[in-house]
């Protein structure tokens, strides 16, 4: 009897296989960078050894950093997350630039001979560009998001709603590297805009309420004439959405889960609705995103605004008769070159777009996810203003 393996270790072994495969591939990618760059760098051997040790450290720190949240001891958990995420940012740029360098070294010999100087200098250039993107990206990510002003023209907008303002924040990702001070600064900037309403379009947190409630507490200070409204993003479902919706309601935010409210404003009115995240049904079938349910029973003849975390909710929003959808999720790609891959999943990457009669605004996000790095996709606090459509 004792020689028969229990099913629990077998399940663990099965779940460990994809993880081990991931780690093996990751190690090979680091080895590829070292193989292609280190031997040709015009530096002394000790520097090449140091570079190899750095790549080995990155190979270890990235998976450890990704598991940092599972470590209960603080501040060790945050330190490991910081180290791992910084390595992710550096590795990403090194890998992409090394691939581009290899593509260049493949194409150039088709037209002209390649000398050793080009090989060496191109390797140095990869390191310089990766360092530049990482340093600039870090400062872009950690500074306070800048305010982006956007006018949204709506047909038939009542005169009383001309100039109605919405402050949108999205994708803050409070967690191991984004804490209370970061959130405090965002809240101060939003309140300074004196908006008519605040829209928080998901992915607020990366972690549970018990760990992060101290750091999301500043959201209770959000101040707007008609209040602050929140919809869930996919990361809320990774982090325990029911507990977070309860906590955010306690902080005074209006959580809209396939529901709407009617705002009375200077003798006019508009509908503000919200849907659960596009992927919510994978976590809870009862929370499937439903734009039709969100607008059901709403009065006719007034502007209809939908808060939906993912831009790909737009087709359902347009079919349900909304005039404007506010989304996030994409981070605008966050840093080069990933913005070019977002369209593989989402219909819009960033900014204001039109889908038939529906306007869709996609925020690049107010924080960041993973590596503290923004390069080519700056964070934003958006001030949207409703204006009458011309003609």
From TrEMBL:
Transmembrane domains' residue ranges: 20-38, 44-67, 79-100, 120-139
UniProt keyword Mitochondrion, yes or no: no
One function term, GO molecular function aspect: metal ion binding
InterPro entries assigned: Calcineurin-like_PHP, Metallo-depent_PP-like, Metallophosphoesterase_sf
Entry's Gene Ontology BP terms: lipid A biosynthetic process
Cofactors required: a divalent metal cation
Top-level taxon of the source organism: Bacteria
Listed GO CC annotations: membrane
UniProt-listed Enzyme Commission number(s): 3.1.4.53
Calcineurin-like phosphoesterase domain: residues covered: 165-332
Broad class of enzyme this protein falls into: hydrolase
Keywords for the protein's UniProt record, in alphabetical order: Hydrolase, Membrane, Metal-binding, Transmembrane, Transmembrane helix
Gene3D superfamilies in the record: 3.60.21.10
UniProt similarity note: Belongs to the metallophosphoesterase superfamily.
Protein's recorded name: 3',5'-cyclic adenosine monophosphate phosphodiesterase CpdA
């Amino acid at each position: 009897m004792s020689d028969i393996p229990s099913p629990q270790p077998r399940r663990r072994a099965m779940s460990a296989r994809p993880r081990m495969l991931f780690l093996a591939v990751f190690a090979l990618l680091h080895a590829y960078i070292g193989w292609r760059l280190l031997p040709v760098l015009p530096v002394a051997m000790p520097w090449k050894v140091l570079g190899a040790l750095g790549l080995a450290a990155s190979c270890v720190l990235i998976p450890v950093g990704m598991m940092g949240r599972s470590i209960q001891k603080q501040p060790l958990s945050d330190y490991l997350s910081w180290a791992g995420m910084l390595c992710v940012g550096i590795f990403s740029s090194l890998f992409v630039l090394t691939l581009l360098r290899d593509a260049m070294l493949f194409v150039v010999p088709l037209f002209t001979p390649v000398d050793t100087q080009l090989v060496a200098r191109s390797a140095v250039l990869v390191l310089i560009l990766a360092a530049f993107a990482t340093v600039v990206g870090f400062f872009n990510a950690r500074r306070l998001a800048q305010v982006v002003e956007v006018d949204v023209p709506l047909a038939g907008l009542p005169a009383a709603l001309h100039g109605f303002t919405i402050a949108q924040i999205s994708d803050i990702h409070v967690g191991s590297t984004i804490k209370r001070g970061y959130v405090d600064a965002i809240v101060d900037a939003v309140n300074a805009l004196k908006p008519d309403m605040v829209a928080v379009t998901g992915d607020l947190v990366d972690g549970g309420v018990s760990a992060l409630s101290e750091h999301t507490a500043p959201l209770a200070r959000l101040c707007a004439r008609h209040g602050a409204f929140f919809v869930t993003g996919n990361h809320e479902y990774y982090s325990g959405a029911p507990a977070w919706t309860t906590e955010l309601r306690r902080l005074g935010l209006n959580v809209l889960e396939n529901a709407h409210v009617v705002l009375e404003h200077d003798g006019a009115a508009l509908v503000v609705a919200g849907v659960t995240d596009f992927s919510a049904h994978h976590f809870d079938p009862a929370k499937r995103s439903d734009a039709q349910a969100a607008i059901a029973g709403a009065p006719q003849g007034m502007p209809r605004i939908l808060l939906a975390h993912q831009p790909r909710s737009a087709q359902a929003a347009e079919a349900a008769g909304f005039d404007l959808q506010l989304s996030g999720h994409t981070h605008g790609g966050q840093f080069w070159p990933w913005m070019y891959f977002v369209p593989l999943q989402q219909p819009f990457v960033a900014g204001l777009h039109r889908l038939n009669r529906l306007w869709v605004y996609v925020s690049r996000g107010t924080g960041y996810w993973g590596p503290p790095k923004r390069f080519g996709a700056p964070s934003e606090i958006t001030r949207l203003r409703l204006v009458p459509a011309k003609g």
